[in-house]
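Regression test case RT-17, inverse folding.

Input:
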């Protein structure tokens, strides 16, 4: 529950049709199991107390009274438990029968949600038994208490910030305007759906996408509990296809045709953050909703109790998968599709700039490293889109103090295999003269020594472009810009930066994508060797011919920094939450001390180096995170990091 996480469950119990006692026993068992595993919310299938397939038995008083009596047992069993349970049953109101979801917590029924949309087509004939539920809540007498009955009810937990729950039942999700849309607009962050969706060929895929897309549209957590084995098989089979989704991401899914329970954590903090940044998300309006507030009676029970009043909630061991490479899809087919899409965005942006400036020439500084390789590959793709001869690309290699034979030869081979013009302009002499002119010792390998090389290279590229009417294509990537790992007015500057919103972890896969796609064996071989070369600016002389300056030894592993970057910029998470997520994602790979060390370094550099990002050249946005001062990151260059540093020091 700390950091905005709340554990939730969707359950499909073993049932017997019309055996309310047996069914109640199974429901009580599952509520106890979920609560013991620290879940704070559980949803069961539609009409679970009786079974969905009772047919005309729903017209029998014996079944209806039996269901009511067993619901009372379930309500009693929840006393003292830290969990909100959603249980489906048939219920009489005003002489009519309704398909209802009872929201139960700590020995009370908090509210009754009727099904709004009653299907009566194909295999469904619910209108034979049930009436359409009302939206505006009214008070009814139920199990000796006055309880609100209606679809427009929100359940707000006072002990877990942001935990506002609402409900809909099966068909309600499948209609053109689901009730959950109104629920989310009124302030619900979690939607539960009690369902009895029979299984037909291919329906599981549609159901899965429906739940995912609704959670994305509503920026919410969505729990879907489906009827399963135990329902009557007279005409239909139910597979118990339970789903938990959050903002378009599937967090947990049951195996079909196996009853049971799935659990995961909904990140309420992430949902709140996402809605906050969306200026098109409307302010929560009343719209006739009743808000039921409740408290968990013993929030610390079964958890490690913190000492002292007002202490923070303890961490949950997260069951949801925390992707250590959030910028890179895991599925190879999806990753290939994403790489094709991103390189097309990069190339199309450059194509427009070339055509707008009436230039059929480009200049790229090529080092034999990953970033310049990607920039050159994208530039060639843009030239192909323009119908330009790749010979119009001038690829300039500028060997200096730190250049190794490996990177030099890779750069040369790469340019030749791509059909671009290769130009070699050594800068050792000019940099040495410049350092002498400013009175700098050549044996002092400090920041001046390094930056003089970067700025000389940029000057060469700019002047060469001026001589030929060309455009200088920038090579720096998003990760370097976030860390400020760029020389101001050196490699920091270009006329169009194609890699500016591509993180380093993704650069590797984009270069690999080009290697996989080419039929040129020499080109593939050099791309693979570039991928195998340590990341380095090569500004310090090599040792015994090998690279002596490895970037990740200095600023930290890029896989960690890209992880930090994603959660800090995409969701605005505080340092403690980012640290917690990183520990979960990289468990067994980095110690907590190492993660914290580089997290502190990230924040330090991120705040100190904003002045470089405030004057970046144009470049295409390819993903959800970017640092362009004209778009995604409008941050003052002199912002103070004191609040963030104070929290980091407490970790």
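Golden output:
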């Amino acid at each position: 529950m700390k950091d905005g996480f709340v554990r939730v469950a969707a359950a499909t119990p073993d049932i017997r049709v019309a055996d309310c006692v047996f069914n109640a026993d199974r429901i009580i068992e599952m509520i106890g199991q979920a609560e013991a595993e620290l879940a704070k919310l559980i949803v069961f299938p539609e009409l679970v107390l009786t079974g969905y397939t009772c047919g005309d038995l729903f017209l029998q008083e014996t079944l209806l009274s039996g269901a009511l009596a067993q619901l009372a047992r379930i309500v009693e069993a929840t006393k003292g438990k830290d969990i909100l349970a959603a249980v489906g049953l048939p219920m009489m109101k005003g002489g009519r029968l309704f398909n209802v979801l009872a929201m139960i917590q700590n020995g009370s029924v908090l509210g009754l949600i009727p099904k709004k949309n009653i299907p009566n087509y194909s295999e469904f004939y619910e209108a034979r038994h049930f009436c359409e539920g009302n939206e505006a809540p009214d008070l009814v007498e139920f199990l000796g208490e006055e309880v609100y009955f209606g679809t427009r009810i929100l359940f707000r937990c006072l002990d877990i910030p942001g935990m506002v729950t609402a409900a809909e039942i099966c068909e309600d999700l499948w209609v053109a305007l689901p009730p959950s849309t109104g629920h989310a607009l009124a302030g619900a962050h979690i939607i539960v759906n009690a369902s009895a969706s029979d299984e037909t060929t291919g329906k599981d895929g549609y159901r899965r996408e429906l739940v995912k897309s609704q959670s994305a549209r509503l920026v919410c957590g969505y729990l879907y509990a489906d009827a399963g084995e135990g329902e009557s098989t007279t005409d239909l089979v139910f597979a118990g296809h339970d789903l938990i989704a959050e903002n378009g991401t599937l967090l947990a899914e049951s195996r079909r045709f196996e009853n049971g329970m799935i659990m995961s954590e909904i990140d309420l903090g992430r949902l709140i953050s996402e809605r906050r940044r969306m200026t098109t998300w409307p302010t929560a309006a009343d719209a006739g909703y009743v808000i039921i507030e409740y408290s968990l009676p013993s929030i610390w029970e079964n958890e490690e109790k913190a000492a002292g009043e007002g202490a923070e909630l303890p961490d949950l061991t997260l069951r949801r998968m925390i992707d250590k490479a959030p910028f890179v899809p895991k599925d190879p087919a999806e990753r290939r599709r994403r790489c094709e899409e991103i390189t097309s965005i990069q190339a199309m942006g450059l194509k427009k700039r070339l055509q707008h400036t009436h230039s059929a020439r480009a200049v790229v500084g090529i080092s034999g490293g990953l970033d310049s390789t990607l920039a050159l590959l994208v530039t060639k793709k843009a030239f192909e889109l323009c119908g330009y001869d790749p010979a119009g690309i001038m690829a300039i290699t500028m060997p200096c103090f730190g250049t190794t034979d490996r990177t030099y030869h890779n750069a040369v081979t790469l340019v030749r295999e791509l059909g671009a013009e290769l130009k070699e302009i050594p800068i050792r002499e000019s940099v040495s003269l410049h350092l002498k002119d400013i009175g700098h010792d050549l044996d002092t390998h400090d920041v001046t020594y390094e930056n003089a090389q970067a700025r000389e290279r940029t000057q060469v590229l700019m002047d060469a472009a001026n001589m030929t009417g060309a455009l200088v294509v920038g090579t720096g990537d998003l990760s370097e810009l976030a860390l400020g790992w760029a020389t101001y007015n050196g490699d920091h500057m270009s006329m169009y930066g194609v890699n500016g919103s591509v993180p380093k972890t993704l650069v590797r896969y984009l270069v690999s994508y080009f290697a996989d796609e080419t039929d040129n064996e020499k080109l593939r071989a050099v791309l693979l060797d570039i991928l195998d070369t340590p990341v380095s600016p090569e500004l310090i002389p090599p040792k015994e011919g090998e690279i002596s300056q490895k970037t990740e030894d200095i600023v930290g592993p890029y896989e960690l920094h890209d992880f930090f970057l994603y959660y800090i910029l995409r969701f605005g998470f505080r340092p403690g939450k980012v640290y917690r997520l990183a520990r979960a994602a990289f468990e067994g790979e980095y110690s907590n001390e190492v993660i914290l060390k580089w997290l502190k370094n990230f924040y330090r550099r991120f705040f100190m180096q904003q002045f470089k990002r405030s004057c970046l050249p144009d470049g295409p946005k390819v993903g959800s995170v970017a640092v362009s001062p004209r778009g995604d990151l409008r941050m003052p260059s002199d912002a103070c990091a004191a609040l963030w540093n104070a929290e980091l020091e407490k970790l």
